[in-house]
Amino acid sequence: MSMASARPDPHETSSPSDWKAIHPLLERCAIGPPQGRRGTFPGVLYTICQMLRGSVVMEKDGCRVEATAKDPVWILTTPGTRTQHFSEDAEIISIHFAPGNSANGAEWKGPPIACAQTDEASRQSLENLCTHPAVARLSFEEQINFGRLEWQLDEYLQLQILTLNLFRQALRLAATVDQRFEIPTIEDPRVRSSHRYLAGLDIRQSFSRNDLALRAGITAGQLDRLWRRELGLTPNQFRDQQRLTHACEQLRQADIPIKAIAADLGFVHLSQFSNWFHTRHGESPRSYRKRPGTN
């Protein structure tokens, strides 16, 4: 038996309902010059970049990619901080997805940034979205703040169909470069059970380390050690990541007051939320909200 066939399937322990809560949203669909021509940028979204003119060099977590307009590739980037340097004449198609809370703890695996060769199906899915009348009529400023726009119901449903197809094509191409959005493979049933519990827990609900460990029949310290061995982080750290993702999702909606977001996450004072967010994201909530495209 080969090593590939012996590798456990990460979806074997998943029920068919595990993916029902996922709700991919299109946050940017822009054609034109890059919003950050050069520099280091924090990001919480999954992105597709296709070069139309010029060239680019990008780095993320030790991985480096280069692409030009002549290359039939998509640059696929997982959430997190990246460095990029576009040429002065660069023009791109920039697509940003917010996969949403899948309620199963799914996460990005493999290279954090990669160039994937496109094919007819993927190119057609991108063209279908970018040339849709509802997108084509938008100004560039509206295109980079796509997630904040309002739509007629029929228009929104059409765009959502195109978005889902493009996201599906992106995941298909990502798999060719070993980049995956998947449920973690968890061997220990105590970690698997507690992980599923936290992944599906409403973000507004608090949890107790001791109660979580008691459900598994062990101490909180033992559960922390099991989590680190299986997932590389503790339950508290996992919950902290969930809260940050939720905060970013809410901040991208301009009509939600920052004070309301802070209160939603259990912060009594706005300054506490601002300090917490700045420590984890490198900028204040207000700065994040004002940044073009918020990514």
Automatic annotation (TrEMBL):
Residues 202-291 form the HTH araC/xylS-type domain. The keyword Transcription applies. SUPFAM superfamilies: Homeodomain-like. Signal peptide: none annotated. One of its GO terms (molecular function) is DNA-binding transcription factor activity. Keywords: DNA-binding, Transcription, Transcription regulation. InterPro entries: AraC_XylS_family_regulators, Homeodomain-like_sf, HTH_AraC. This is AraC family transcriptional regulator. It comes from Puniceicoccus vermicola.
